[in-house]
Amino acid sequence: MSVTACPGCASSELAVESGRAAVGMPTHHLVLPGIHCGACIRGVETTLNARPDISDARVNLTRKRVSVTSKPGADPTPWIEDLARAGYEAHEAKESEIRSSDDMLLHLGIAGFAMMNVMLLSVAVWSGAADSTRDFLHWVSAAIALPATAFAAQPFFKNALAALRVGRLNMDVPISLAIVLACGMSLYEVAIGGEHAWFDAALALTFFLLAGRVLDQRLRRAARSAAENLAALEPTRVLRIENGERISRPITEIDVGDRIWLAAGARVPVDATLISGTAEIDRSALTGESDAISVSRDATVHAGDIAITGPVEILATAVGEDTTLRRLTQLVSTAENARGRYHGLADRAAAIYTPAVHIISAAAFLGWLIATGDVRLALNVAVATLIITCPCALGLAVPAVAVAATSRLYQEGVLVKSDTGLERLAESDLVVFDKTGTLTKRTLTIPSDVELPHRQVLRALAEASDHPLSRELRQTLSDTAPVPVTDVSEEPGVGVSAIWNGQAVSITRAAENGRHTVFRIGETEFALESEESLLPNAIEAVKRLNALGLKTAMMTGDAPSRADAIARQLGIQEVWSEVSPHQKLKIVHDLKTSGHKVLMVGDGLNDTAAMTEANASIAPGSALEASRNAADMVVLSEDLRHIPYAVEVARTARRRIIQNFSIAALYNSIAVPIAVLGFATPLAAAIAMSTSSITVILNSIRGSLR
Asked: Whole-angstrom Cα distance, residue 340 to residue 704?
């Protein structure tokens, strides 16, 4: 039996977690890359909770994990085998995959709550409170603001200290300095009975900057390393044959020359040679092609392949870093690191802005100190300058637009996962498509003369096998109920057969070519043609991309004749066929080297390296999890028109970001001279800073980016 998604996945949810009561703390975590819905959850939990050695099993669909409570140190291999027999692929999770969430929202909430209370007290002071009443209100403000600011501003303090330790500046250095000086000067003014305190300014500064960080973090939270996801495909334990017995061993103990036993549906853990008969192999993870292949004794299988039929025995020929899967993981990791060095508009602006803030504030302090000799006055001017020039508007310029854009795209069925993905998408000038699963889909056509009850027999045979062609048949015949059949048997590389009403019935692959399938009932045969058709709106999507000024190309592991035929239908001029994952990566790299900004659209494991190498990438919702995680965006439907729409929104967002920078620059050109000349108190500076931030937010959401 192969690993496949469950029949109930049509009603998938965005996030479901089971409601079973926990029994103790989980001792193991398994990765479930193929689960999609509530039915999957029930199937996995029912399978695991039926075992006597498991106290409790709880599935988290969002993270595609199951937490298992058992004896510490228990071997999870039998659990994984049980799940495989139930139709669910599972791997033991590594500790690095178990992540905890951050508490940035807590910092924002405390800053906002404290800011509102201190501002209410400030209103009383502004209304005319004087002498002891004013001093009392100031001390109450200090009691609220100082601990709240000390806690809420920790993200800025930590980042600033980390930068200063290595002798560099970042945007958090002037932010932290402004917060500390505002609080320190306010406390000093309160202590000497001064008329003014600026605790509300420090809190407002902290609140607005934290709001920008939360907006930014909303984008980052969905992102996950595609390289880590590829690594998760490698099982942590395998069954090694030792003295004729199957012994569970960690994958790290497997050496070249070891014999490994694989159940039907198991993923091949190492590069190896098949040493037992024949088998059907699903190689779609590496090649992107949905057709399974039949391999015989002495054939080569690769890490990442799935043995559809089994059990089989293999002889390890490459292990560890030498396997196909590990090499592909390394390629993806290298490409991810290269993409991680991309500097967005905000980063480039901050590189200029941050030192300028320090220079202007220091110059204001020294100028007023020399002119007046009054340290207190000079510090007030410096604090006001720091606050008024503090990069709130700059910090909100990108995340505010990004959230507005991602919300708009999500409403249209596009999920944005990367914080800089919109900027990189807006710069794209060439779209490179994968073919199978991205632009096309494979279907089996059932002849019109196959009528009831023969269609029901065909459905019954399809239910008896988990071969990819059988899965296609089940989907095609989803509205047809199967009839009872007996004596079901499946022969690897040949097909599945059974007895119905005393007649022999079977589905077999045609011997002369692999492109159609024979359905036989007694002496009657029907040819089931395997056809490749374009996804809905594919032609229109390509035309719209061309209208936006983007060139289009396609690369595939398929044969040249089929690739060229699809390209002609779509109006795509440039095609690369019969290309491997390494070659796809090289093609994208060469295109970038020649000056193109490449947008890669793909759905298979064989596309992940090229997708991470590309300037930007998009995956369909039906893509493998590794591809979805490698992508900057995921289209949640089969409507390819969402791709040019995403490009249009990204370009609009980029224009808004540049407008926000212009607003921030205009604000600073007016506000900075006022602060430096001593006409703005720290409180007035905080109000001006807040006004510029609100202006940037309003511009970001204007027209919802339409």
From this structure: 28
User: Residue 488 has which token pair?
Assistant: 């079901």
Out of 3.40.1570.10, 2.70.150.10, 3.30.2130.10, 3.90.1150.10, the CATH code matching 235-322 is 2.70.150.10
Q: In what order do the strands lie in the sheet with 312-318?
A: 245-250, 237-242, 259-262, 312-318, 271-274, 300-301
Q: List residues bridging with 59 in a β-sheet.
A: 66
Of 142, 159, 61, 60, which Cα lies nearest the Cα of 104?
159
Taking the C-alpha atoms of residue 111 and residue 454, their distance in angstroms, rounded to an integer, is: 69
**Which residue, among 342, 447, 441, 431, has the nearest Cα to 610 in the 3D structure?**
431
* Domain spans of the chain, in order of start: 7-97, 104-221+342-400+653-705, 235-322, 414-439+536-636, 442-532
Q: What is the DSSP letter of 575?
A: E
pLDDT in tens, 549-593: 999 999 988 888 888 889 999 999 899 988 888 889 899 999 999
The crossing angle, in degrees rounded to 10, of helices 642-676 and 682-701 is 160
CA-nearest of 165, 491, 162 to 309 is 491
CATH code reported for the domain at 7-97: 3.30.70.100
Phi, psi dihedrals of residue 144, rounded to the nearest 5°? -85, -45
Phi, psi angle pair for 492, to nearest 5°:
-55, 130
Query: What torsion do the CA atoms of 14, 15, 18, 24 make, to the nearest 10 degrees?
Result: 160
Residue-wise pLDDT for 618-666, tens only, equals: 988 777 666 777 788 888 777 889 999 999 998 988 888 888 878 877 8
Do residues 387 and 183 make contact, with C-beta atoms less than 8 angstroms apart? no
User: What SS3 class is residue 596?
Assistant: coil
pLDDT mean over 111-131:
79
The percentage of the chain sitting over the pLDDT mark of 90, rounded to a whole number, equals: 11
The per-residue pLDDT for 343 is: 46
Beta-bridge partners for 444 = 530
Using only C-alpha atoms, what is the Rg of the chain? 31
Supply 272's token pair: 């190896």
Segment 138-150, tens digit of pLDDT? 899 889 989 999 9
**Cα 623 from Cα 467, distance rounded (Å):** 19
Q: Which amino acid is at 485?
A: V
What tokens were used for 35? 């689960």
Q: Are 641 and 540 in contact (CB under 8 A)?
A: yes
DSSP string, 380-439: HHHHHHHHHTSTHHHHHHHHHHHHHHHHHHHHTTEEE--SSHHHHHHT--EEEE--BTTT
Provide the phi-psi class of 120: left if phi over 0, else alpha when psi is between -120 and 50, else beta: alpha
User: What is the distance between the alpha carbons of residues 338 and 356, in angstroms, rounded to a whole number?
Assistant: 29
Q: What's the token pair of residue 440? A: 């096309």
Beta strands in 516-642 (DSSP E): 516-521, 524-534, 551-555, 574-576, 598-601, 616-620, 633-635
The CATH homologous superfamily for domain 414-439+536-636 is HAD superfamily/HAD-like (3.40.50.1000)
Is position 434 annotated as part of the catalytic site? yes
Do 538 and 523 contact (CB within 8 A), yes or no?
no
391 preceded by cis ω (within 30°)?
no
Longest dimension (CA), the chain: 109
What is residue 510's DSSP assignment?
-
Q: For 376, how many CA atoms within 13 A lie in the half-sphere containing its CB?
A: 8
Q: Of 56, 271, 434, 466, which one is the catalytic site residue?
A: 434
Q: Encoding tokens for residue 281?
A: 């192999």
Do 422 and 654 touch, CB atoms closer than 8 A?
A: yes
Environment class of residue 576 by beta-carbon count within 10 Å: exposed (0-12), middle (13-18) or buried (19+)? middle
Class for the domain spanning 442-532 = alpha beta
